[in-house]
Amino acid sequence: MEESERIEEYLEILYRMELNGERATTVNISEKLNVSPSSVTEMLQKLAERGYLNYTSYRGVELTEKGREIGKKILERHRLIEEFLKFINVDEKKVHDLACKIEHVIDDDVYRGISELLYKYRQNGNLILLSELEEGESAYVVTIHGDDKLVKRLMDMGFVIKTPLIVKRSLGKRGPMIVSIKGSEIAIGEDIAKSIVVRRG
Amino acid sequence: MIDLNVRSKRLKIALIGNLNVGKSVIFNFLTRKHQKVANWPGKTVEVARGEFFYLNREIEIVDLPGIYSLSTFSPEEEVTRDFLLKENPDAIINVVDASILERNLYLTLQILEMGIPTVIALNQVDQARKKGIEINRDILENRLGVYVVETVAIYGKGIDDLIKKAIESAEKRKIPNVQRFPEEIEKRILEIENYIKEERYSKRWYAIKLLENDPIIVKIFMDDEELLKKVKRYREEIERIYGENIYHIFSHERYKQVGDILEGVQKFTLPTKAKLTEVLENITVHRYFGYIFLVLSILAIYGIVFFIGSYIASFFDFIFESIGNWYFGSFGHTEFTGLLWDGLVEGGIGAALQIVFSYIFPLFIMLTILEDSGYLPRMAYLMDSFMVKMGVNGKAFLPIMLGFGCNVPACISCKILENKKERLIASFLASLVPCSARTVVILGVVGYFLGIQYALLLYVLDFIIIFIAGKISSLFFKEKTYGMILEIPSFKRPMLKSVIKESWYRVKSFFSVALPVIVAGSFIIALLNIYGILNIINNALEPITVYWLGLPAITGFLLIFGFLRKEMTVIMLAAFLGTTNFASVLTPAQMFVFAFVVMIYVPCVATVAALIKYSGWKAAALISLGEVFMAILLGGILYRIIILI
Fold first, then answer.
1. Does B484 contact A184 at a Cβ distance shorter than 8 Å?
2. With contacts defined as CB-CB under 8 Å, which chain A residues touch B74?
């Protein structure tokens, strides 16, 4: 692996841990990346020198704004590519590892291209974003995009795959809606509705 | 049955459940304490404890903030998790909303996994029946292996039985049934269980939580690298089999378990909905009429409060005038009788009753009705798009509405927001909302002497200021605004008894704090006036009060004292003047500017204390100073505009 790729890989994992509320210590990171603690330490020092993170050997690390931005970008790419690989029916077992490799070599144009392609596909396959549904329409939950915290919260409130829902109320295309799901009514903001993929029906 | 011959025993019972299901209602019923109850999700943000005796047992009951799951982590959910991790309740009362059984049982199953004796309170069964849902309690009990008690907590129905069953379950250590996962998962859970050495809760629970990669549970087993490695391998194996992320798998499977448990438990018939409820449900969240209804209902609240308030106020006015005539007739006009009357009776108690009580009691009644009806979350939904422009989501409208009663609970309830930035902006905005004390000044001075339309104009101005302040403060933060996710409860008809009780409680706590300060303050101002100290303070503030704001010099002292309690400003003015007829000393323009400045110039001392506690002293100082500056600046401009007109 080239060094730039390794840097991105580290920043992605650190960003992921930050989202999950996990403490980023050398041991934790080495476990996640399957490398020795000593090489993690070395790499972390290098990242700190370049201003991607603040590093103290015993208290763990913290991403800087610059590091977080890259970590976030790579994670977004990773998720998109995973979705793409699933779409073209790549063996589920390989999806994650492949995505880890591809995420480093694509640029913004490729990213946009893939996401537009997936968007068109979703529309054809009756897959649309919840935010695009009109008042009174019903649909099934297909998947949720977003950070782990959001995904968990929504699933706990009943937005589980294959669950039917009805848009009871909507304040228009750009606004919140009230969704009836699993017997309860939940108001969700526009941003949240955009992160939920549903199938009409 | 429970053992009746037991000699004093201590039991700890925790109330756990989804948001807005009635945990605090049960808590209040049992402890005779006064936890906040109303009809919107997120009222309880901190642990409340109470004790009561029951059949020779000393029972500690703990009311916990509502949660949707044991594995998510927003601030108020952390409180509940922390409690479970640090304290070992003898039994759990899991309160569920009978009309949203499926979603509620999702949490129930997670609680049962812990292996603690649990009783289920099937609450609001009356509401469920109205919605056409009939629940077969016996099947549910058998499948879960715990007692299920039907309750209607607001009427205290079933609570006695509930607590008996909780005691019995705790003392006989009645352990719930285990709900199995599919073979591929179950096998691995059993495998991990063998390595768990923790004993507070069931080994199965720790095993499941480890598999779920729950950061807090993983932390407990931090030192056991062997175990964590094994768990990681199993987790990855499961993820590979299902082709999904682990918590997708678990929530999916848990909902499947819920589905199996509910098989044949619920019978649905047509709901019997009152016509009014249906109309309200449609109109309150309508994309156009919803906003009209919102504005009208806020106007109506203040219209009614003003109408009733001024009626009561003139009644007190008459009483005190009559007594005053008799008093001075019998004892004559001397410096001493004057001080006693102006400072203590008319200025202190009289003003407190006439100005404060007259308006505050009706206001609390109206606000309690609003909170109990279930309208607040619908307001939040309507306001979401506006709130997003201010860097917060619609949920922040809840603290803002609570601010109309008192800014202190409003600042506390900002805890329901997802991140620090949103909590900070929301508490800033909530501190600008005219609370009941400011309402006294606005309605009692501007409304009473100038007319209700001018009072309402002040409210409109305040909302414009809030919007602009929110917009500006959102520019200081880079963080993304977290989207709104807010459960909308059913409409409920507020119960007269509980509305009066709640309002009376609020008036009582208002007066128990306010009255001593009011009486002391009124007395002090009358005293300082006699010895001329008042003028020194007032003269020092003259450049601001007289020259910039165009107010009489006395307001300098009033504004300083008003930091303690904002209604003090008018009460002390009354004490200083020896009358509540403000029209005799203030011009209409001065009244308007005075009320405006009082409305926004600084949060009162109690609010500042709440801000320091929940947002830190830096934010509190910034908000307070910012508001003083804003009030002086805008007040002066307002004065000049009014003069021009």
1. no
2. 153
Contact list, B255 vs chain A (CB under 8 Å): 158, 160, 163
> Measured between alpha carbons, how far is B634 from B630 in angstroms, rounded to an integer?
6
- Which residues on B lie below 8 Å from A37 (Cβ)? none
Contact B232 A31 (CB under 8 A): yes
Residues 105-124 of B with CB under 8 A from A: 106-107
Closest CA to B61 of B190, B163, B213: B163
- Between strands A127-129 and A196-200, the pairing is antiparallel
Tell whether A153 is within 8 A of chain B (Cβ).
yes
- Domain boundary assignment for chain B: 9-171, 183-268, 289-644
Give the residue extent of every domain in chain A: 3-69, 77-124, 128-200
B415 CA to centre of own chain: 10
Q: How far apart are CA A67 and CA A75, in angstroms?
A: 12
**B29: closest CA of chain A, how far (Å):** 26
Residue A190 in contact with partner chain B when CB distance is under 8 A: yes
In Å, how far is B482's CA from the nearest CA of chain A?
8
The single residue listed with the structure tokens 């649909």 is A139
From the list A151, A184, A189, which residue is nearest B393 (CB)? A189
Of B215, B228, B385, the CB nearest to A20: B215
Place of tokens 């021009």: B644
User: What's the CATH code, domain A77-124?
Assistant: 1.10.60
CA distance B391 to B477: 8
Main-chain dihedrals φ then ψ at residue B372, nearest 5 degrees: -75, -25
pTM of the shown model = 0.82
HEC letters along A94-131: HHHHHHHHHCCCCCHHHHHHHHHHHHHHHHHCCEEEHH
What is the spatial distance between Cα A162 and Cα A143, in angstroms, rounded to a whole number? 9
Task: Give me the residue from A148, A178, A184 closest to B100, CB to CB.
Answer: A184
Q: What is A128-200's CATH number?
A: 2.30.30.90
Q: What is the pLDDT of residues B499-546, one digit of tens each?
A: 998 898 888 887 787 777 777 777 787 778 778 788 888 888 888 888
Is B72 touching A (CB cutoff 8 A)?
A: yes
Q: A52: helix, coil or strand? A: coil
Give the number of residues written for chain A: 201
Structure ipTM:
0.88
pLDDT tens track for B584-605: 888 999 999 999 999 998 888 8
Output the average pLDDT for chain A.
Answer: 86
Which of B72, B248, B287 faces A171 most closely, judged by CB atoms? B287
Could you give the percent of chain B with pLDDT greater than 90? 56
Strand pairing category for B485-488 and A127-129:
unpaired
Residue in B with minimal Cα distance to A144: B248
Residue type, B560: I
Please count the CA atoms within 13 angstroms of the CA of B206 that sit on its side-chain side: 20
**B240 interface with A at CB cutoff 8 Å:** yes
Q: For chain A, how big is the Rg over CA atoms in Å? A: 19
CATH code for the domain defined by B9-171 = 3.40.50.300
Chain A residues with CB inside 8 Å of B251's CB? 152, 155-156, 160
Task: Convert the pLDDT of each residue in A46-90 to its tens digit.
Answer: 888 888 988 776 667 888 888 888 988 898 889 889 888 877 777
Q: Which fold has domain A3-69?
A: Arc Repressor Mutant, subunit A (1.10.10)
Q: Domain B183-268: which CATH class?
A: mainly alpha
For chain A, say whether B377 makes contact (Cβ under 8 Å). Answer: yes
**CB contact set of B434 (below 8 Å; sequence gap of 6+):** B403, B404, B442, B458, B459, B462, B599
Query: Is the CB of residue B119 less than 8 Å from the CB of residue B279?
Result: no
Beta carbons within 10 angstroms of residue B11's beta carbon? 17
Cβ of B384 within 8 Å of Cβ of A175? The answer is yes
